[in-house]
């Protein structure tokens, strides 16, 4: 009996030791590297360029259909809506001057929500509280357009997500989500984007998770429309894992996951709208 | 759902008289091939831009006929010799009879 | 032991007979197949060129196609067609024809130019059904034809980016 208890104690000690080592690594700069792929972003870029060339990048610079969505977003930003007769521009400046750099800290922990607040949620919260307007349905054209416009105000500014204090458990939850195996294929996010990133799945090169969150909303050729990171995760990644019941937009798990992924892109400049295939 | 027929035409900012300038034009359009099916399994009828005309001043300088094989949200670049101050008008027509057009002013220095 | 052997033979016989029967049945849809196959195959590029240009000779040169070697998505393949032919009022590129040979209908677009364009260059994004050649034919105002051909690989992505 005593032996068993002490055995358990030793196991516990060992476990906590391992966990604290992981936690230590996580908090340091190398820690980020620890959980990023076995190839560097530079190596990934090189492989990508060798395989596909620069056509997509060139198309993004030449003419991105999402630019037109951005224009719509700007118009919606200035449009008066709701019972109070106000528009976004009334508080945030005619061209959104006061929102410059605001998008760099989203998604972020919100004390009122006791969870992660994403940019679309903030937009809808603004609409309900300050404009007395009906909230938009997540993932629809209007809210994507406004999100794109608000994000474009922070173009070129580095993402700086804080995971300190009360946000920490949600970061951990997002990470857990990232490593949770799902669906008929029994895959997790990390399988493709950590273990096999830079390798091929059929004819695609799997991306590294370092660059996943810096360019949304993006025009995707496969959709032939502009969408958010959540649409990509839910309707493509999770669907491709053959998950029976797809999660909802802005559900808790997805928000945590977005938080985790955006933290992975910390320090990278925001570049919207993106253009991907 | 994005609107059909939103247009953006881009020309260089500073144009010298006689320059050959690139004109980049983008229009939102589904360019349905007629070969796809919707979620209910019904074929989506073809719906595509089949005619594009470019006017510089009063002259028709370029006309294109397109088929379903031009990508959705069509983008094109072509060149114009900027030898006069005149509007550049681009007109798109689709197979359902809708017409979309937009104009930019070319003012060579 | 013998019994098992017998039943095994029996099985092979039955299986063989089934195969024969199936292949006979297979012939019947085979009769209807050519019609379907023709529809699936679509137009041949040679026929299309003949329709557009008759028996006129198409020379190589003076035209260049810029396209990715591997297209990430067949629905959006960026093409740039450049010609070094003159664009003077007396002698200019009258029309640029664009073909994707693997498509059911290979003709993609025809672009009629005038000397006011100043330069025979065009960029378009096209759809390609499968890996095939892209062909650009240029017709001059004097009636000469020039062409360029470039192969583009179209991949079917694992997740599609």
Please provide a written account of the structure.
The complex is a heterotrimer of chains A (277), B (109) and C (161). Chain A is mainly alpha-helical and 277 residues long. Helices cover 49% and strands 7% of the residues of chain A. In chain A, helix 5 (66-78) packs across helix 8 (141-152), helix 7 (119-130) packs across helix 8 and helix 9 packs across helix 12. Chain A is globular. Chain B is mainly β and 109 residues long. Chain B has strands at 7-10, 19-27, 49-56, 59-66, 75-82, 86-94, 99-106. In chain B, the strands form two sheets. Chain B has a four-stranded antiparallel β-sheet, with no helix packed on it. A three-stranded antiparallel β-sheet of chain B has the order 1-2-5, with no helix packed on it. Chain C has 161 residues and is α+β, with helices and mostly antiparallel strands. In chain C, 30% of the residues lie in helices and 34% in strands. Residues 24-39 of chain C have low confidence and may be disordered. Chain C starts with a helix and ends in a 7-residue tail after the last strand. The B-C interface holds B 20, 33, 56, 59-72, 74-81 and C 75-77, 80, 87, 100, 103, 105, 107-119, 121-128. Strand 4 of chain B pairs antiparallel with strand 6 (107-112) of chain C, so a sheet runs across the interface.
Q: Main attributes?
A:
heterotrimer, B: 109 residues, mainly beta, 4-stranded antiparallel beta sheet, 3-stranded antiparallel beta sheet, 50% strand, C: 161 residues, alpha+beta, 2 helices, 34% strand, globular
Q: Main β-sheet of chain B: number of strands, strand sense, barrel status?
A: 4 strands, antiparallel
Strand order of the largest sheet of chain B: 4-3-6-7
Largest β-sheet summary of chain A = 3 strands, mixed
Gap from first CA to last CA of chain A: 61 Å
Give the H and E element order of chain A. Answer: HHHHHHEEHHHHEEEEHHE
